[in-house]
Structure formats: structure tokens, C-alpha cells
Design brief:
Layout lengths: L4 H14 L5 H9 L14 H12 L3 H10 L9 H15 L4 E6 L2 E6 L9 H13 L14 H19 L3 H22 L1 H6 L5 E2 L2 E2 L7 H10 L5 H14 L4 H7 L5 H20 L5
Antiparallel strand pairs: 1-2, 3-4
Helix pairs in contact: 1-3, 1-5, 7-8, 8-10, 8-11, 8-13, 10-11, 11-13
Protein name: Abortive infection protein-like C-terminal domain-containing protein
């Protein structure tokens, strides 16, 4: 099974961040189980560079199949099989262009050939939905009502001013990174303020059957759990994941590899996501 570069990039995100947040030593252990003989230490490359290198090496070999079976092993998704099926459905959108798909048959992970690529005609609908989201007007964002620690609120307020300056100065990449990191900081602050609710959620990330410490949660985890708890609505959840994807281009080589060139429209969408998220968090907050 040989996968194109775009599919490998998406696979890397699933490995490094989404199915589980894997640090350098965990990535080494994973790929060593597939035949590598690496050790973690000084001079180790960035996690995404290391994973890219390893995926390129095993692409088209039986080890790639083994990797998928490790990544999507159902025993690691007890109590959250819907999340497993969501991951599989997501990667299958990419693998369709390689004429392959992952299939889960109860507890067994297999692969099937795909004869044709079927792309639903949703382009017009998506444009309309995005335009409608951008056209929404929000009242003045009231950061003080989020209930975050005063020091965090002060930092977020300063970032809001900086985002406005970057937007007016036509610096879209800066707007994207500041919006993404601010959203992550706000959601993390909300989680820390409501540990019982976040730790009890079905989408709370786990390791060894224990919910991870909040500092180990990814932005994806924070978005999905906030949505599960009713703090974020479907529209903000959807576009927050778009912002999360854009925010990942903070790595220059990843931006080059994906040929990503944001413009003011992209910046406006990301800025709108942050404002909409905070508006909903204030109006849907726990124990109002």
C-alpha cells in the first residue's frame, strides 16, 4: 500500500497529535516496533520531522499496514468507538486518492481497494455556510465574564489588541497563529476551571485508561470536549478545527510542503472563530 504525500501528512497528525499526543520517546518506541533502531536523545529532530521521515521510509511496505493496525487498534478505544470510526472515516477521505481505504470489521482492521473516487458536490453549500458564519455579528466580546484567572484574562485581552493590529496591517499568518493559540489558552483555562465536567466527558483524552493531565490535552481535545459539554455549538466546533489545521502551519517546512498561502479572508475566518467561541463560552458557561 503506497500513499501520496498529502495522505502521509494527515497520517502524521493522527499519529503525533490526535489519536494520542506522542512525545519524542513515544514516537521512537512506536517506529522501533516497526523495525527501526532509533534512540531518543540530544539532537533529536522535531516530532513532525521525525514522523515524516519514518513514514516516507515505510511507505509501500508491510510495516505501513502494521502501523495502521497499531494506530486504530480497537482495544485502545474502549468506550469511544465513535471516535475511532471518525478517525478512520477522516483518513479514508485522503486514502481514496491512493485507491485504498481502511475498514473496521468489529475488532479487525483491514484494507480494501477503492476503484473510484466519489466526491460529493458540497462546494456551493460549504461556501454558503462559511459566508453565513463570517456574516454573523457578535456583541462586544466580554472576556471578563469567562471566569478565567485574572492574569490569563489580561494576556488574552492584550492578544486581542495585537490580533486587531495584525489584521489591519494585513499580516494574516500572525492573525492565524495568535487566534489559534488564544483559543487554545481560553479553552484550557475553561477546562482547568471545570475539571470535574471535562474529566468526566466521553471525549476526554486518555492514556492507560486514565484521563490525561490538562497540559497534555491538544487543541482538538479541548474543542471536542467543549462541544460535548454544550459550551460550543456545531458551527464553532467545525470552524475551530479549521483554525486548528491552519495554526499547525507555524512550522515553515510544513507550510512549504502544503503550499499554504493565507490571505485576509483566511485571517478573517480565524479571527471570527475566536470571537464566536468566546461569545458562546460566555453564554453557555457551566453553572451559570
Amino acid at each position: 500500500m503506497y500513499l501520496n504525500q498529502k495522505t502521509l501528512e494527515r497520517l502524521r497528525e493522527l499519529i503525533n497529535e490526535e489519536t494520542e499526543y506522542r512525545k519524542g520517546p513515544q514516537l521512537v518506541k512506536l517506529f522501533n516496533s516497526l523495525g527501526s533502531r532509533d534512540s531518543y536523545g540530544q539532537g533529536f529532530p522535531s516530532r513532525w520531522q521525525y514522523t515524516d521521515q519514518k513514514l516516507a521510509k515505510i511507505n509501500g511496505t508491510p510495516e505501513l499496514d502494521k502501523l495502521f493496525k497499531i494506530l486504530f487498534n480497537p482495544i485502545n478505544y474502549i468506550g469511544k468507538f465513535d471516535q475511532l470510526d471518525s478517525f478512520i472515516a477522516d483518513i479514508n477521505q485522503y486514502m481514496a486518492f491512493d485507491k485504498w481505504k481502511v475498514v473496521r470489521n468489529n475488532t479487525e482492521i483491514t484494507f480494501q481497494r477503492v476503484n473510484e473516487i466519489k466526491i460529493p458536490d458540497t462546494q456551493k453549500k460549504e461556501i454558503i455556510q462559511e459566508d453565513a458564519f463570517l456574516d454573523k455579528e457578535f456583541e462586544e466580546v466580554e472576556l471578563d465574564k469567562l471566569g478565567l484567572h485574572t492574569s490569563v484574562t489580561t494576556v488574552v485581552k492584550a492578544r486581542f489588541d495585537e490580533i486587531k493590529n495584525c489584521f489591519n496591517s494585513n499580516a494574516p499568518l500572525a492573525v492565524i497563529f495568535l487566534s489559534g493559540s488564544s483559543l487554545e489558552g481560553v479553552l484550557l483555562g475553561i477546562a482547568i476551571a471545570n475539571p470535574k465536567e471535562y474529566n468526566s466527558a466521553k471525549t476526554a483524552p486518555k492514556k492507560d485508561d486514565k484521563v490525561k493531565q490538562f497540559h497534555e490535552w491538544t487543541l482538538m481535545n479541548l474543542i471536542d470536549t467543549s462541544y460535548e459539554l454544550g459550551l460550543l455549538k456545531e458551527d464553532v466546533k467545525k470552524f475551530s478545527h479549521v483554525l486548528r489545521d491552519f495554526r499547525n502551519y507555524i512550522h515553515p517546512l510544513q507550510q512549504v510542503g502544503s503550499n499554504f498561502h493565507p490571505d485576509k479572508h483566511t485571517a478573517k475566518l480565524c479571527w471570527q472563530v475566536l470571537k464566536a467561541a468566546i461569545y458562546q463560552l460566555v453564554n453557555n458557561r457551566i453553572n451559570r
